[in-house]
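Allow me, if you will, to draw on your knowledge of protein folds for a short while. A protein sequence and the structure tokens that stand for its backbone fold form the material at issue. I would ask you to consider whether the tokens describe a fold that such a sequence might reasonably adopt. Thank you for your consideration; the sequence and its tokens are set out here:
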Amino acid sequence: MTQAKATQRTRSSRSRTPDRREPGRRDFLTAAGAAAATFALGVPARATAAGRDAVTAVEYVDVQLLSITDLHGFLQGAPGSNSVIIGNGGRSYTVGGVAHMAAHLERLRAGRPNSLFFTPGDAFSGWEFDAAAFADEPTIEALNRMGLDFATAGNHEFDKSPAMLQRHMEQGVPFPVEGRDHSFTDSSGLRFHGADFRYYSANLVWGADGRTVLPAYHVEQVRTADGRELPIGFIHLTALGSERFPGSFQPGLATLDEVATADRCAALLKAQGVNAIVLSLHDGAVAGADFNSGSAPSGPALDLALRVSPDIDAIVTGHWHTRFNMMVPDPNGVPRPFVEAGCYGQIINEISLRLDPLTGRVVRELTVSTNHPNTRDIAPHPGLQEVVDYWAGQAAERDRTRIGRQTGSFLRARNAAGESTMGNLAADWALWAGSRPADPENDGNIHPNVPAQLAVVAAAPRVGQAVIAGDLVLDAASDGAVTFGNAWRALGFGDPVVSAWVTGQRIHDALEEQWTTTEDGELRFAPLAVSRNVRYSFDAQGPAGDRVHPEEVFIDGNPLDLGGSYRIAAPSYTLLASDGYPALSDFREPYRHQRDFESFVAYVRETAVLTPPPRGRVTAANTSGAAADVGTVVDPPVLLLPDGTPVPRPEAAIISADRPQPARGGGRAPC
């Protein structure tokens, strides 16, 4: 790993893009917090009993670390029952929303000149339509307005590309079409100018040469009472294997071992005279239900916390959408904070450090950590409420914007062979998407972009979730208008289309994998939709695993060659076997294309008029007789939150994916 000297930044004068909306970055947070009548206070975790006296330890330098994690663009508030969290002796709190968060931040920052606000990742890749429909720029505007100082890159920060993160999200470079795809007008009437903060990751590297994609660590400067500066180093880690997650699938990237990378960075910082070090980690753990304590912890972040360099004074985590606040011993047995602040704006974590003014070392026994619920029982900050309201209005307008026309309905209803008009549309879109020219901003690839020869889409997958989310029903009153919102909601959950080489044998095997037999003998059918240039038939009387004969599979009119190679296009979710077709996971030279819902919108725009083609790509043979059985199709269940509302589709796809999980002590799948 190559590593330049750490970035140096001082609390009083920062080297960053100035905020062009307000007189000062902090000035806009001025009065809302003071107007609130009540606040829900968290319960602190202390390194030792001496931490109770930390507030009066005036001989030390007071440093406040404030963090949020996994916001995922939820500006209005946490979805469904995610808006209620439990803590502080079983008490429940209604939480969420950046307008309330801004008011809480103002209160927490009051009287704390050495205050730093950051996130350990997944701030954007918005799952709320208001942010996602505008390329996640609303999330960056909100974070700018709240004065975020820096961010660790999570896996979802790479749901588009490294260039998207660096050139657009950080620097504001518009692409591809200003005002349509990116670079929208924000709530102040200005074009998107990028983040007023930087992103970091020490272990996400270019696979070809091991160079870090982003700066690995950086140094913040805080001031002593007599005006001197003391450095605090921040090391940043992205979840191991992010480059192979369906959403952040980036063939040209790799992730390095987390512990070894953090230890190396800690040693580099110590060599530069930095004696206070914090690890911001986009990987998580589980530690009970109470957001302000920790019980029976487990998970990869805990394993790291127990092993990583004792020179690291605090560990702030994310990625698992869990909530805990605790102290864990470093390898020398000295306690240090180990925290995660939930997701969707539920919690603000606060760690109070005391630094020795002569050495700059953290006085560990005085460290205090608190998870503060982002409650909605206070007045929202008017400046952030203006941002939220503006983007909600923009989203409503964009939802009904016409982008194409359809001459008939596309429905998920299937015929006896498992074929549907919506499935056929999805497969044709995937073939189009996998044949697109290379995008210069799509720089996470390492292999050439070879146009796809065929495409498959799981119409009713064996496991996981279906990329097809709904029907496109003809609206005769609007002359068949297809709106942006119709297209966005009909298909996708934030994963890219990927084209790759597979053998004809693998294509055949994947078609056979559509059928499985349950323990009680029932034949299940999980149909794959195929693109318009593919035809095949299956034997309705054959056993599972022997229903598709290669000579009955045709691509562009030619029989399938089991020994040949074919360029196939499919959602990354399918090629990574997340939906239960492992034969296709034996692919070569993958090339990542655009994300599904954005790509489908582009497909509708380019196609202009969508006409349902006749069915007949798949036929069932030998359907008469007692032994005939096409199989029972079982659509994936809609995952629900405890209050009965649906889990956000991107999250549901991750949670239910068929993928190997490391030992996580019964914890939920990370997001």
